[in-house]
Design brief:
about 325 residues, Immunoglobulin-like, Glucose Permease (Domain IIA), eight-stranded antiparallel β-sheet, about 40% strand, binds zinc ion
């Protein structure tokens, strides 16, 4: 298991991964909202492993549910269930591996896993998902192809003061340090799954900028928007969407006062531009608990919350996690 050392946030700084801005033209937002379809193209497939593992798996009543197709940037769920206790489950996805929590529900032993891809880096095509269940000391291996489909995320053009797009030289070292701290935070994979769906909305305000927007700042293509901007007056409370541990609280060049929560099994949420963080590193927060106040610190043009979700280091769209239960997300 990778664990993130306490206190690193106080020593180091990082750069946020996307450029966060309050939405500036209302009409553009409406166009964007209209253009984005929230439906996914994932169809659940449930099956036993192929070949030598198949018969053994049938006896153990091992069933793996995975999507066949997903849009880039969209989170999805994988669920392995067994009729008897599993010693261990291993999941391999996009060069990362981890062992998810196993829970018991209705006499079934269940490993529920959240996965996703990052709109910045993922390419269209098939990715292999491997799930290994160890039962009575024996390995049962499932291999699945998941097709990644590129969604046409809208383009957003912005004109901004030059220093907001290209940071001055004297800030480069700080930005590099910010990046290191964030990378370490996003590599955290803690063994206990604490997240449940749906997530609680961190701020009640409307969405002002969606995930995936392709941003062109002062005619230069920049990274797509890899989070969800929620409107809120300065000082509006920000709530934890799920139970988790505070793993990083820091002031970063782009993200301003920022906060990272670890919800277990590789799911991390992040909160940028806060006026203030109300929790400390190492603290456990419950779903719905107040963790900070909306602000406009860092490179933000106005008060709002930039909310990000990382799954095994892939920055995914937070919005489906507000709208779905485990059942509806698995059924897509
Ligand atoms: Zn943002």
């Amino acid at each position: 298991m990778l664990r993130f050392p306490q206190g690193i946030g106080e020593r180091t700084r990082k750069a946020m991964t996307g450029f966060c801005l309050k939405t500036f033209i209302k009409s553009m937002t409406l166009t964007v909202l209209a253009a984005l379809s929230l439906t996914t193209v994932a169809f659940a497939q449930e099956a036993a492993p192929k070949g030598a593992d198949a018969q053994k798996s049938a006896e153990l009543q091992l069933v793996l549910a995975t999507p066949k197709e997903v849009y880039d940037g969209q989170p999805f769920l994988v669920r392995l269930t067994a009729g008897q206790p599993m010693d261990k489950v291993m999941v391999y996805w996009l060069d990362r591996e981890f062992s998810p929590s196993i829970t018991v529900w209705n006499n079934r032993h269940v490993a529920l896993v959240m996965l996703g891809t990052d709109v910045l880096t993922i390419k269209a095509g098939e990715q292999e998902l491997v799930v290994v269940a160890i039962v009575n000391g024996e390995r049962n291996t499932f291999k699945r192809k998941v097709r990644i489909i590129k969604r046409k995320y809208p383009t957003q053009r912005l004109t901004l003061p030059k220093k907001m797009v290209s940071p001055p030289k004297e800030e480069h070292e700080r930005i590099a340090n910010d990046r290191k701290a964030v990378k370490a935070a996003l590599e955290t994979i803690s063994p206990q799954r604490r997240w449940l769906l749906p997530f609680e909305r961190p701020v009640s305000g409307v969405v002002s900028s969606r995930y995936g927007l392709r941003r062109i700042l002062n005619d230069k293509p920049k990274n797509p928007h890899r989070g969800l901007d929620l409107q809120g007056e300065e000082g509006t409370p920000v709530k934890a969407p799920a139970t988790g541990e505070v793993i990083l609280v820091d002031d970063h060049y782009y993200a301003g006062n920022s906060l990272y929560l670890d919800h277990g099994n590789g799911v991390i949420t992040m909160y940028f531009h806060l006026a203030q963080a109300l929790v400390e590193e190492g603290q456990i927060v419950r779903r719905g608990e107040k963790i900070g106040l909306v602000g406009k610190t860092g490179r933000a043009t106005g008060a709002h919350l930039h909310w990000g979700v990382s799954v095994l280091g892939q920055l995914v769209d937070p919005e489906p996690l507000l709208e779905n239960t485990v059942g509806t997300l698995l059924a897509q």
